[in-house]
DNA sequence: CTGAGATATATTACACGTTATATAACAATA
DNA sequence: TATTGTTATATAACGTGTAATATATCTCAG
């Protein structure tokens, strides 16, 4: 077996490692989403969730809200337009801004996801790392080992509804 | 100010969030590397470090070692070949395998980086999150806030040598 | 020793992030 | 009001990960 250098090098490779774990988590999440038969990418959800929470948002606000750059937001919103999940029209007061809102179809998808997929994913992730504590490198090692032992799709199918609100509290610090 | 949904949604978006932070860390690391005037990408370092630690490795072993897929390893090694930092030749016993080793130039770069850049980066990251403890979501929030307050390049220029060995111990659990 | 399957690497196409820059609309001042 | 600068979005080019597949080499059963 070969040494995992990214893991061995600790803080030096923390960036690579976070990215790597994040990609793995997203891929695992995609499996759960796909299993529900919705034709959507997991990475598109934060955009829908942002509009669902805050009401119609401009491209720039969406970019800020999901934490990526504006061209990335423009592209993803383009995809969601194609899928008929969102609608875009110029803001009435400023023709430069484009207000993006959920279509009925988009709102339905969000409502459905909120009751089924999202709690399921949150519960699986919580099962993976919800009770962890301690230095970050140790937690990451546990998460990596945990994912190797059992992917998200085989985790946490119970107590799902509890988890979302916990997450929000967490952030409220 | 717009709400950060990825942060708000907690475990549900942990994948996106880890990726986002990882990308940010890597971009910050690149600044430090660039400041040293070496014409190398931060993401290429793990490959060099892997060979430096284990001796010549095949493409497949490198992929495993760095934790990416084989096509990614093939591409990065291609770049390092272009840069003259590594050498590749078929394994003597199996013509399918390609053994990748450091050139003199590559070894020099590693030796130099080991004494200057790597401790610098590790120290900056340790300064950012070395003393953190507690649930992972809280730690991530602190890291995000910390990066916003002061990027890596403005962190941890002292006590650098200590950090690398600590990281290795950490992993030894 | 030959043909079938397995394995290692290379190639291709794609996903999704970035930076840099173009374009359109707004704001302000000479 | 015409010009000049700023702001919002779109587009282009690129980086670096992935999955799917082609190609070359090895292994082994018949």
TrEMBL record, chains A, B:
Organism: Rhizobium aethiopicum
Domain HTH marR-type: 11-149
Gene Ontology biological process terms in this record: response to stress
Protein name: MarR family protein
CDD domains recorded: HTH_ARSR
Xref: Gene3D superfamilies: Winged helix-like DNA-binding domain superfamily/Winged helix DNA-binding domain (1.10.10.10)
PROSITE patterns: HTH_MARR_2
One example GO MF annotation: DNA-binding transcription factor activity
